[in-house]
Amino acid sequence: MLGEEMMTSLMWLRWPLLAVSAVVLAVSGLAVWQPLRAFNFVIPKDDAASLVDSGVAYGETHRQHLDIYRPVRTAKSLPIVVFFYGGAWSSGRREDYTFVGKALASRGYLVIIPDYRLVPEIHFPDFLLDCADAVRWTRRNAQRLGGDANRIILVGHSAGAYNAAMLWHSTRAFWVTITKLCAASLLLPHRSISCRSMIQQAYPP
Predict the structure, then answer these.
(1) Is pLDDT at 142 greater than 70 in this prediction?
(2) Cβ(89)–Cβ(118) under 8 Å?
(3) In sequence order, what are the beta bridge partners of 80?
(4) 51/71 Cα distance (integer angstroms)
(5) Residue ranges of the alpha helices (H) in 62-124?
(6) Is the pLDDT of residue 20 over 70?
(7) What are the distances in angstroms from CA 145 to CA 71, 78, 94, 109?
(8) What is the 3-class SS of 122-170, one letter each residue?
(9) Eight-state DSSP code of residue 1
(10) Which residues pair with 53 in a beta bridge?
């Protein structure tokens, strides 16, 4: 009699065990072929932040879209993080970095995670131009999103870190060049263009 009860109990346990096994196998298979997506699937997400908009276009192609994360407790003029993921400039999806967006947003940042075009469909420096366009879009829309356009932090992983560093370097080089041009223009006897208009033409808001 006891043996029959045990067999009945085991039969009831069979389906939950099979279900758990199926989930484990599915996650394991995903980890083998797409480890980042598996990691993003299983890692706990921070409830203090949320994805507030997804697939927002900053350009015209399907790879020129971004996701936006905010703290749940909203505040105005949040510092902004623009995060560029890695992938050897040949792979990557913004959807796989939900854990990054929520982790940073939970610390009080407005977080922007853009996709950018990849090789071999495009060539250098097109992916950098996409990243620059994403930052430009962020600056233009910062106030509407509750962010501070004067406090934008560029963050990246692997190839994305290179993208962030190149944008910082090009911005620094730009201002050095503008400063030199403005200084030179002051020496001209008949200046037809002011430093302000020079900057506005080269770097529109």
Answers:
(1) yes
(2) yes
(3) 110, 152
(4) 9
(5) 98-105
(6) no
(7) 12, 9, 19, 11
(8) CCCCHHHHHHHHHHHHHHHHHHHHCEEEEEEEEEECCHHHHHHHHHHHH
(9) -
(10) 68
